Amino acid sequence: MPVIPGPRYVLIGFSGSPNSYAALNRAAAEAQKRHARLDVVRVIPATGGRLRTPAAWLRLRNDVARVLPRTQHLTTRLRIARGDVATELNRLARRADVLFLGARQTSAAANPLGGATVHALLSSSPCHVVICEGQSRQDA
To answer: What are the residue boundaries of the UspA domain, all occurrences included (predicted)?
Structure first.
């Protein structure tokens, strides 16, 4: 009996920062190379009204549509998660091949990798984690 593998996907935690745009570009290229689905996730705070979720999804859709080629739109899934960023990305990364993150904007001087979210995901993520930096939003 043949074993059919589950779908493969590349996950990116997207915040809208310049470094997360760089991560989106790299994740999109990696998803194409692996013939995998690209899951773009924005995590918003659990507090606040339910109207924040549709507004965040529309903002995410516009941000991603500006960067990705139209041919990749069909294999891209946009998600909004509510709660702690590290906890939600860790939960969503259980079945991912790789997780892409943008480094914190002010991390170059103090810590080259970023803040608490990056450290939490590097230490507990069930998949490989790639940290990206070095691209401004105008270049994306």
So the answer is: 10-132
106 within 8 A of 115, measured Cβ to Cβ:
no
Q: What angle do CA 31, 100, 86 make, to 5 degrees?
A: 135
pTM: 0.83
Task: Report if residue 10 sits inside a domain.
Answer: no
Rounded average pLDDT over 68-97: 92
**Predicted confidence band of residue 119 (pLDDT cuts 50, 70, 90):** confident
Q: Is residue 28 a part of any domain in this protein?
A: no
- Structure token digits, residue 11: 């996950």
| Exposure class string for 81-117: b at 16+ Cβ within 10 A, else e | beebbbebbbebbeebbbbbbbbbeebeeeeeebeeb
Q: How many domains does one find in the chain? A: 1
Indicate whether 11 belongs to any domain.
no
